[in-house]
Amino acid sequence: MDDARAQAGRLRAEGRATILAIETSCDETAVAVVREGRHVLSSVLHSQIALHAAYGGVVPEIASRKHVESLNPLVDEALRRAGLAFETVDAIAVTQGPGLVGALLIGVTCAKALAFAAGKPLIPVHHIEGHVSANYIAHPNLAPPFVCLVASGGHSHILYVEDYGRYRLLGQTLDDAAGEAFDKAARVLRLPYPGGPSLDELAERGDPHALALPKPAPAGRYDYSFSGLKTALVNAVHKLRQAGREVPAADIAASFRRAVVESLAERAMRAAMDTGAPALALAGGVAANRLLRRVLQEEAGAAGLPLYMPPLELCTDNAAMIGSAAFYRLMRGGIADLSLNADPGLALL
Ligand code: KG4
Ligand code: ZN
Questions:
Q1: Model pTM?
Q2: Ligand 2 mean position to 242 CA, how many Å?
């Protein structure tokens, strides 16, 4: 560990690092090699979507087992594609949490073994910090401060990114995450798994004004609440089915998507304007939503606010974003020793 500490000190002094990053917090096994937090030398992943589809959601035991099978070959593949031998990597990064504990443990154990074997620094990364950092890869000129809307399957946060690794929480969901709400709505509409992208696609062909839904109004200026919308949708669909009437799935999907997106966009814009932030960024799986991207482009454009969105493959879970976040953590001395443990409820702030 002394070797690793000395190596971390050298990398920090030189302001450089080529990092091998591992992400296994949910249902994607992902490995990437990232240089100086911005240059992706390789990024590979194995999606477990097909495995979980039969169950309509992620089955934790199956996820863990598949991570075990996929991880070592993916580490080899990431190194091969980067054209690097393992010895030339400077540090190992891994998602510590939040996520499924069994899934996280596979990544953390593998990263610890690699760091121990090579005497390299081990860098623990918060999954949400990874999502935010996807923007650093996609936009070489983006630097803090900025406001970031992080919307994924487990989180809906508005963060003020004061500096690399320094965040202020402006608001968050009081109940369901946006992605969770999309997934649930999709299940009620009997759309294919995973629900969010299916609902997004179907909504493109529907009438967004067909179904009247309540406007969420949580008290906090930057907070979210999606459970009322979800209940309204469930009730509307059940009523139609009970009456033996056809469920206009595209119209309902479009109406639901509009309600969620309007809420996400309105409060993210409000946070950016109130704080006078120089830019707004999007992150997390829901940042792949087509309507959210269009609406924010329009609103930020009208307000003259620079808007940053990662490309779709960097919105959903991947390891490149973990490698980016890890670089900035390493530069602040944030390394762990081999007692590192997975933390399914890890706090960001
Ligand atoms: O960030 P992510 O890959 O994993 C988590 O950290 O949760 O986000 C996955 C979530 C899922 O809920 C998924 O349905 C949602 O992001 N999602 C979408 C879209 N693509 C992914 N939701 C709405 N529209 C999309 N196009
Ligand atoms: Zn995620």
A1: 0.96
A2: 37
